[in-house]
Amino acid sequence: MNKDNSIFKILIVEDTAVQAELLRRIFVNEGYKVIIAENGVEGFHSALNHSPSLIISDVLMPEMDGFEMCRKIKNEHNLRDIPVILLTQLSEPVDIIRGLNAGADNYIIKPYNREHLLSRIGDILETSHKQRNKTLGKGLVAAIEGELLNVEAEPQQVLNFLLSTYENALHQYRESLKMDNQLRYLNNILEKRNQKLQASEDRLRALVYTAPDIIYRIDSEGRFTFLNNAVERLGYRPEELIGRHFNAIILKEEIESVSRLKVLPAYSGRTTNSVETPKLFDERRTGDRRTRGLEVQLTKKNGERVVVEVNSSGMYEMNSGTMKKEFIGTVGIIRDISDRKAYEKKIIEQAEILEIQTRELKTATQDFHNIVEKSVDGIIVTDGKGEVRYKNPAARYFFKNNPPVFEFNRSCIKESIDIDIALKNGEQGTAEMQVTETMWEGKKAFLALIRDITRRKRTEEFNKSILESIGEGFIVVDPEYKIITANRAYLEMVNKFDENIIGKHCYEISHHIQVPCFEKGEDCTVKHTLETGKSHSTVHIHNYNGKSVYVGTKSFPMKDESGKVYAVIEVLNDITNRITAEKALIESEEKYRSVVENIGVGISLISPNMEILSMNRQMKEWFPHIDLPNRPVCYRSFHKHQQDGICSYCPTCKTFADGKVHESTANIPAGNEVGNYRILSSPIKDNEGRVISAIEMVEDITERVKTEKILKDKKQELEELNKNLEGRVKSEVEKSQRQEKLLFQQSKLAAMGELMIAISHHWRQPLTALALSIQDIEDAYIHGELDKSYIDRIVSESMGEIGFMSDTIDDFSNFFRATDKKEVFDVKSVVKETLSLYGLQLKDALIKVEFITDNKTYENLPVLGYQYEFKQAILNIIGNAKEAVLSTKENEFEGETKGVIITEVFNRGKRVFIKIRDSGGGVAKEIRHRIFEPYFTTKEQGKGTGLGLYMAKLVIEEHMNGRLYVENVVEGAEFTIELDLINS
Q1: Is 691 in a helix, a strand, or coil?
Q2: Backbone CA torsion sign across 77, 78, 80, 85
Q3: What is the distance in angstroms between the CA of the first residue and the CA of the last residue of the chain?
C-alpha cells in the first residue's frame, strides 16, 4: 500500500452478507474506511449520516433497489457529488441507460477481479478528489490506469461510443459463458465416462475372482504374478504359487511339450499352419495365433492328476520412451476337463452298446406284432385324418369294433387325455389315451395307446373324498415341483379358492416366491424325498394374508413298479400356536434360570431330609467345597463348624412342617466379625399338595445392617452438613454448568464432523476444476498453445475457484462463531444458511430437501437468543432426520430419491414456528417420551452419542425460552420449534 487511503470512506450497500463481507475485507486491507448497509433505504440514510467518499451498491435489493437509491442520492444537494458505482451481472444494455438516468457514475461487473476493482476505485476517488479541489480543465474527465484525461467529444458521441463498446463486451461475455457451460458439459461427460470405466473395471475384477476356471498371469520368466481363487481346486492358495515357475503345477512328463523354451527350438526355420503351430502354456503370441485348446495334465498339491484345457495369450504394453510395444507376460485360462474326458470315454462305450442294442432291436421287432396283438392295452394307428390304419383286438373290444374318428395332430402328443370305453360287464369305463408320432408303412402316422384306468380313477375319486375330509393341508407334487392335486384344507390355508393352482409350482403357492425354496437355503421336504425316496419332515414359516405362520410339513414318496419316485405327497399343518407356546416356555425357562443364576441372593433346593439338591451360582461362590452329587446335609455343610442337628433359626424345617413360607435372620460369626443373613423358605408341592422340597433363599444383609448403624451415627453429622447446604448447592450448580458446557462441546464436535463432510462436498467440484486446469497446462505446452492469453485465462479461472473455496471456509468458520451474549437474529436466514451448508451432503445421500415459507423474501423474523447454539440445534434435528430417512426400507421410495426433508418457517402473530418434517417412518410410541433424554440413542454402539436432540431441547427451551416437541405425521416425524418474535 503506497498511499494513505484512510482519508477515504467507502459505503457498501449489499443485501448478500457474504458479498458485503468480501468487499469489506478487500477495502479494509487497502486502508480504506468501510461502512456497510443491507438495503437501499439503509444505504441512503448511511450516506446522509456519514458523507462517504464513494458509494458501491448492488442493483437488485429488497425495499429499495440500487437505481432508486442512486436517484435519491443525486437529488440530495449534500450528496450529489459523491460518486456512485453500481454492481451488475452485465445483463442488458438498457441497464446502462437506467443507471445513467439514475445519475450513477460508473459500473463494476460481477464477478470482478480484485486488482481491477481496487485500481478502478482508486481512479474514481482520485478523480473525485481533484474535481472537488478544481485542479482539472474543462470538458469531461476520464481516469485510465491512474492517469486523468480530458475528453472534448460531444456527450451524445461519448454515449453512443460507450454503448457500442458495452454491447461488444456483453456479446463477448455471453460467448465466454457459453464456452464455460460447454466446458462444464464436457467435464460432466468425462466424469460419467470415468465412472462407467471404473464400474466396468469392478465388474471385470469381480468376474475374474468369481470365475470357476483358473485365471493366471505369468511374467516373461514364466513365474506366476496372478492367480484367482479357482486355483484352490488344485489344493493351493494363490499366494503359495505367486513368484514360482509354472512348472510347479504341470506334470513333469508334459513340461517338455508345453514350455516355449523346450518346444520352439524344434520349430526353428519352419513355417507352420494353424494345425501344426505349437500350443504353449507360456504363450507370447496374440490374436489368431494365440494358444487354444492345449490339453495338459496338472498335479494337485496332494499328488492327484487332473486333465485341463489351457487357452493362453501374450500381453504387451506401450513403452513411453521407445513408443514400441514390449512383452510383459502371458495371461491364460485353465479349465478342468476331467469330467468331459470321462464323458467322451463313456459316449464311446455307449455307442458300442447302442450298436449291440440295435441288432437286438431288429430281432425284437419281429416279435412286436405278436406282443401288440396280445396286449391288454388298446392300440390304434391313424393317419391323422380319421382313417384307422390299424387297431389291435383290445382296441376293437373297447369301442365294440367301431372306434371313433380321431383327428390327431402334433398338439395331441403333449399330454394324455381321458376317453370313455366299454367294459366287459357292460358298464362305461375310463381309459387314458397317449398319442405319439410314428411311421406306418413308410408314412408318417399317429399311434394311440389306450389303457383302461377305470379302477385307478375310481380309487383316485375315493382317495380324494378321504383327503377332502381330513383337516390337514394335502398336496401331491410332481418331480418338477408342480402341484398335481390339493385338498380343501390346503386351499383354505393358502386362501386360493378362486384360483386354479393345479400345474403351478408348490413354492409359488405356499411361499409366494418365484424360485424353489431350497435355493433360498430352506429345508425342502419335497426335494429330499425326490432325491432319497424317503419321508422327510421340517418346519417352514409361511406368510398368509400378511401374517407369519409356522407350518409343519411332512413328505411321502409315490413310487412306480421300479421303485422310482414319480410324485411326492406333502402334508402341511399349521403349528403356529404350538411353536409360539414352546418358544414362550423356553424363554420363560431361560429367564427364570438367568434370574436364579445371576441374582445376588443365594438359592438352594432342600429335600425333606434336609439334603442339598441344587445351588445357584451365588451359593456355589459362598460354599465351593460342597459336593452336590453326594447329597450333603445343609446344617452340616453351611457352617464352618459342622452341627449335628437342625439350626435353631432354620425356617426350612418349619416349611416342611406346615407347608407355608417362613423367614428368619441368622447372625453367624465370620472371623473377628459377625455376618448377618436373611433366610426365606418357600415350599414346592406335588399335585396332591404334599411338600416335596423347599427353596431356601439366603440374602447377605451384613452391609445393610452396618449401613443402618452408620446412618444412625451419621444423622447428627447430616444435620450439621445441612447448615452449609447453600455453599454445596452453589458448587453443584457450577458443576452442572461445567457439565452442560462439556455436553455442548461434545455435540459441537459431532456437528463439526457432519459439516466437515459438507466441506468436502463443497470443495469437490472446484478441486476437480483446478485439477483439470493443471492437466490442461501440460497439454497446452505439448501442443504449443501456451501463450500469455492462455496463462491469463487459466490463472483467472483458477483464482476464481480458489476464491470460491476461500469463501466456503469463511462460511463454515462463521457458522461456528460462538458468542456468550444473546443477540437479535433473523430465524429464516439462519435456517436457510444451515440448510445450504448441509444441502450437498443430503443431496449425495439421495434425500430431497425443501424449504417453505409464507413470508415475503425481504421480511425478517427476528428473535433474541444465541445464534450459534440455534444453528447447532437446527443441524442436530436435520441430522437426526437424515439418519431416520436412511434407515427406512429401500423399496419405500422409487427412482433416485430415498426420502425427503421439508423445512417450513412461518409466523402466527407474535410467535414464529420452525417445522422440520421427514419421511423416516416416525418415532416409535414406546420411545417418544425418551428421545430428548441425554445419551439416549437407538443407533448401534459407537454410532451415536445420544446428545443431539437433548442439546437441541436445552438450547430452545432453557436458553431461548421456546418450545421443542415432536409428532408423527403421515410418512415420518415432525419436529416443531416455537419462539417469541421481538420488535425489529
Answers
A1: strand
A2: negative
A3: 41
Q: Which three cell numbers stand for residue 172?
A: 463477448
Strands 862-865 and 823-826: antiparallel
In degrees, rounded to 5, the angle at the alpha carbon of residue 536 between the alpha carbons of residues 530 and 542 is 95
Q: Amino acid letter at 243?
A: G
Cell 402334508, located at residue: 571
The cell for 868 is: 450459534
Three-state SS at 571? strand
- Mean pLDDT estimate for the chain: 79
Q: Which of left, alpha, beta for 39 (phi over 0: left; psi -120 to 50: alpha)? A: beta
- DSSP 3-state assignment of 224? strand
Instruction: Provide φ and ψ at 614, rounded to 5°.
Output: -160, 160
pTM of the predicted model as reported, rounded to 2 decimal places: 0.28
- Residue 212 C-alpha cell reads as 470357476
Extract the C-alpha cell encoding 62.
429488497
- pLDDT value for 687: 77
For the chain, the residue count is: 984
Helices (H) and strands (E) in the chain, counts: 26, 34
Cα-to-chain-centroid distance, residue 412: 53
Output the CA torsion 866→869→873→876 (10° steps).
Answer: 160
Neighbours of 608 (CB within 10 A): 13
Alpha carbon distance 777, 547 (integer Å): 66
735-784 residue pLDDT tens: 555 555 555 555 555 555 555 555 555 555 566 556 666 766 776 777 77
Q: Which helix (H) or strand (E) holds 673?
A: strand 673-685
C-alpha cell at 859: 421480511
Strand partners, 680: 663, 697
pLDDT tens digits for range 704-735: 788 877 877 777 776 666 666 655 555 555 55
pLDDT tens digits, 458-495: 777 776 666 666 678 888 999 998 988 888 888 877 77
List all residues 6 or more positions away from 129 whose beta carbon is below 8 Å from its beta carbon.
53
Cα–Cα distance list, 679 to 602, 603, 639, 650 (Å) = 9, 10, 14, 8
**Among the listed residues 888, 914, 902, 886, the one whose alpha carbon sits nearest the alpha carbon of residue 848:** 902
% of the chain at pLDDT higher than 70: 77
Q: Beta partners for 399?
A: none
For 46, 83, 733, the CA distances from 54, given in Å and listed in that order, are 12, 5, 54
Verify cis geometry, omega within 30 degrees of 0, for the bond prior to 111. Answer: yes
Q: Helix %, strand %, coil % for the chain, to 5?
A: 45, 25, 30
C-alpha closest to that of 652 among 711, 688, 686, 698: 698
Question: Please, are residues 763 and 840 in contact by the beta-carbon 8 Å criterion?
Answer: no
Query: Rounded to an integer, what distance in angstroms lies between the CA atom of residue 240 and that of residue 227?
Result: 10
